[in-house]
Amino acid sequence: MIRLDKLTKTYRGQPHPAVDQVSMDMPRGEIVVLVGPSGCGKTTTMELINRLIEPTSGRIFLDGEDVTNADPDALRRRIGYVIQQIGLFPHFTVAENIATVPKLLGWDKRRVGERVDELLDMVGLEPSEFRGRYPKQLSGGQRQRIGVARAMAADPPVMLMDEPFGAIDPITRDRLQNEFLRLQQQVQKTIVFVTHDIDEAIKLGDRIAILGERSQIAQFDTPAAILSNPASPYVEDFIGAGASLKRLHLSRVGDVGLDTGAPTARIDGDVAAARERLRSSGRAALLLLDADGRPQRWVDAGDLEGSDLSSAGEPVAAVVQAGATLSEALNEMLTSNAGVALVVDRSGGFQGLLDFETVMVATRSAPEFYRAAKVPS
Ligand SMILES: Nc1ncnc2c1ncn2[C@@H]1O[C@H](COP(=O)(O)OP(=O)(O)OP(=O)(O)O)[C@@H](O)[C@H]1O
């Protein structure tokens, strides 16, 4: 979808190019993450792609068409651009901000209005509440979402995102990343995403380009391949410690073999039957579920001596959705001091158990094990 061919930019008065003969193919519908140290030319590369700056030499192709000399304004309507510090117009409402490009394109008022509401919905903000607000009446995370909505307004096939989640606290950032992946599953844009943060790159990228000085490509591959097979000591350094742990971000709980042999019983059910089920399972504990199959409490044989199950044993801990990453599951297990995670489906229904052993085996698995589709279910 995007092809860079020996793209070079030397800023006026500079002894060296900021981007030096970079060639890269970015496939349609994928998220390509550019990651590299400060000043290595990531932003310059993005600005070359949408012609905010002119290349010194080299060519840019978009969807097979040479756009190196295309009209920049027309080009930018095909490319949504989200940057960290922008750039919502402060005196425009949220709706007016999102409508900027559709208005430029001459859409009629009704179509623009519908599109604004649709996009607000898409980024998880209630249209009636947010449409009329001004940027200063939004939180940082909400502003980011409006930035994304604005870039998507005219449904451009390509989006450039320059550290869009950079200035956001880690918890909100994690949420926005998950929303972003979910959204991408629906819209399937070709996205070039810049970050400093290798963990963000691993989480979001279908492919990652690790850049060195002057945007030289140190490695361009899938996250799993980069983590398993770093091409050079530079890439290894960049990944940092804990490549195995980072690989836990790449697979989902639902993809590994769960233990489905745990005995279960209804919390409002018959105690004697529960006791018998635990005994015949040969296990140490039984899991009590509510009427909808959601895990409630763990009980052992001693707890099943009484007649009331509703307060027997211990409440469950470390409940994770099948769509969670192994890293999230491991974190839950460690923070709740539980030896196993209880894996549930979207409505909370019990699916099986995940233990440390299974997580450890997954960290050692071959790269093919890790799925390309990384969207939380
Ligand atoms: N307008 C300009 N004139 C001269 N030099 C520039 C200009 N813009 C950027 N540079 C230089 O080009 C190099 C690449 O800058 P660029 O902003 O692309 O890096 P970056 O990888 O995006 O950095 P960061 O991660 O810090 O945002 C830097 O050395 C920078 O100082």
TrEMBL record:
An example molecular function term from Gene Ontology annotations: ATP binding
Protein keywords: ATP-binding, Nucleotide-binding, Repeat, Transport
Residues annotated as domain ABC transporter: 2-239
Entry keyword Disulfide bond: no
Family: Belongs to the ABC transporter superfamily.
Protein name, UniProt field: ABC transporter ATP-binding protein
Natural source organism: Paractinoplanes ovalisporus
